[in-house]
Give the backbone structure.
Amino acid sequence: MSGNGNCETIRRPITVEPVRIERIEIRLLRMPLVEPFETSFGKTDTRIVFLVALDAGGLRGWGEVAASRRPLYSYETVGTARHIISSFLAPLVLSSPLTGLDDLASRLSTFKGHNMAKAGIELAFMHLVSLIKGSSISALIGGTRSRIAVGVSLGIQHEIDALLERVRRHLDLGYQRIKLKIKPGRDIDVVEEVRRRHPDILLSVDANSAYRLSDLDHLKKLDEFGLLMIEQPLDHDDLVDHAELQSKFETSICLDESITGPKRARDALHLGSCRIINIKVGRVGGYSSALQIHDLCLSRQTPVWCGGMLESGIGRAHNIALASLPGFVLPGDTSASSRYFAPDIIKPGVMVASDGTINVPDKPGLGFEVDLDYIDACTEEIEHLTAP
Ligand code: OSB
Ligand code: MG
């Protein structure tokens, strides 16, 4: 066996008695955020929540497609994901009974890219399998934690006092790590001020690819603040420039956008592009890829953590299951439902305890009740796909 870690594990495949998917439901919901969220690529005040449900034998699995309306974080959008699912992915899922996650992932790999679309289906499938097999999603994937540690990602604020107030408030709520979104013009001074007020907290920054390698001298000032990590400073699909940057930084670089699958993760570790990886099921194409990246990083002792895409409670419940894996050693971006939506589409919403942790459900299913009445109330479009 390869790898220099001593904790390499052999993953057992996630299988199920062949299950015929009778119908796929696609829903687009309009849900206003509790407050606008601004990153270096733009501002969001309303999410189009894209849900995918798989129906089989009277059971229903729910998944979420993390895409946004506009291709700002990645090339995928709500529109492209809908097209890819209904024209290409759904027929692969409806054609014959599925025997497990590997079967599903190998069918979906017929088509290139479109990871968020694929992830929506994989998430729904894993929820369905968890109902069929009567175990929690966390147990199915090999989760080892009963509680996960979480932080919060704070959007760009135009007044420093507004940011300081949010930092204070979330620390008081127990969040274990504060992540600040940065962009040119809203970076060094902001981080310096937050660090001055909170010398000892776990603090990180996320640039969402707002800088170039030529900004090295400017970015280097970030190395003075004892940050936990600097997330995705350079281009969304870059590995080589990040490796150059990492070699000149004390602070760990964490890659988000650049890690689109297991091979990219391997390449990034090989090149030294980062020392930490943010795993998002949407970005990497679902559980199958996320588990592979997790296992790779665990075997290399590379810390990972679970990122977020302002998901509804359904995507959030999946993130909680994922973050229960042993390699998720850093607090993730899975914050409480109330930070995003009031109310959420699950009951009760995701709660963060005063020690900055979230309970990992151990019952079959998502571990939260799906509020179909509220989903109906928010639904703008619904489409059903069945085998021809
Ligand atoms: O880069 O991690 C990111 C939100 C939308 C798109 C990209 C990112 C984010 C966040 C917020 O940082 C994560 C969350 O709270 O869900
Ligand atoms: Mg990020």
